[in-house]
Amino acid sequence: MSFALAVSAAHALRRLLTDPQYFQSLACLVIVGDALLTQLIIRFVPYTEIDWETYMYHITLYLKGERNYSNISGPTGPLVYPAGHVYIHQLLYNVTQSGEDLLSAQQIYAVFAGTVPNWVLLLLPLSKRLHSIFVLRLFNDCWAVVLTQLSILAYVRGLDSIATLLFSAALSVKMSVFLYLPGILVVLFRRRGLVKTLRLLLAMASVQAVLALPFLREHPGPYLKNAFDLSRIFLYKWTVNWRFFSEDTFLNPVFARTLLLAHLSVLIIFGLTRWCQKDGGVLAVLLRGLRRPQQPPSLSPLLADETITILFTSNLIGILFARSLHYQFYSWYAWQVPFLAWKTRYPNLVKYAF
């Protein structure tokens, strides 16, 4: 009897881990397990102060009426994030007793903590660094990541208007989300055509303008310079990607331009060889789209798998060539790695190593 029960349990476990029919059931179990793991981390691992105090100090100045980004600075530096970041942390400021109730803040952050087999889900909550980024450091990356995830889900389901608004909301929290834009442009142009793509880009810009209105109305220059500073010189001590170069090389403007050129080159290569291949190549897509700007140039509907692959690779290419990739930026792509790994032809052992 016990042997038969064990065999039945083993069979059920195998189906849970491998049968796509049980993917959502396993996902629910993983979420519950990760919630318990996160509570243990909050309970037994000490919190490390890095940027939370600065975020709260920025909000204190904002609530006192300061709207000039040049004058909003804290212990670890000035306010360098767009308006969405300010509004999110104003809410956190209110519900955490001006940022003093760290446990409540950690509990809030804990919430955000196809061809892929079910069991890969088990790998997602096992990252020590992700738990550290979200609940032991309270970085603002999680807010941008969650909004981006919702945006990608909407793009996958063809809800492009909603997806674009969500993407713009994510961009209002952190400019790093900009790395998805090349892929988004490809998806929108292929699926909606030139005219509708331009309309959606206008909607994206409008969201940024509305959210930033309190700052743009009074001090537009400092807001745009700080929140969207493309010329910022990053500190060598925080880089992850390029630690094997000397500091002089890292800070050299030629190095920055080389990375930008390499980034654009790889995007073009993917555009020419990957992202539009099913529709006859990028030139064919562009010609059809320009001839009939009101019509989508794609010959067939963009499937969910193709849409998400374009968006994920666009982001990963940008991360590969990012000059300053801090440790918390791991949260930008960690949840994408299993999907992208299983898009390759590598053996499962190699995919698991990724």
Mean pLDDT: 85
Strand content is under 5%
Radius of gyration: 22 Å
Give the helix/strand class. Answer: mainly alpha
Distance between the termini: 41 Å
Largest sheet: 2 strands, antiparallel
Helix content: 55-70%
- Helical stretch tally: 17
**Count of spatially separate domains:** 1
Order of helices and strands: HHHEEHHHHHHHHHHHHHH
List the helices and strands and how they pair.
Layout: H1 2-18, H2 23-44, H3 52-63, E1 73-74, E2 77-78, H4 83-95, H5 102-110, H6 128-136, H7 141-156, H8 160-171, H9 181-211, H10 213-218, H11 220-227, H12 247-251, H13 253-275, H14 282-291, H15 304-320, H16 337-341, H17 348-353
Antiparallel strand pairs: 1-2
Helix pairs in contact: 2-5, 3-4, 5-6, 7-8, 8-9, 9-15, 13-15
Description:
GO terms for molecular function: dol-P-Man:Man(5)GlcNAc(2)-PP-Dol alpha-1,3-mannosyltransferase activity. Keywords: Endoplasmic reticulum, Glycosyltransferase, Membrane, Transferase, Transmembrane, Transmembrane helix. The protein is an all-alpha fold and 354 residues long. The chain has one domain. It is built from 17 helices and 2 strands. It has a two-stranded antiparallel ribbon with strand order 1-2. A hairpin with a 2-residue loop joins strand 1 and strand 2 (77-78). The longest helix is centred in the middle third of the chain and has 31 residues, at 181-211. The chain is globular and about 70 Å long. It starts with a helix and ends with a helix. The mean pLDDT is 85.
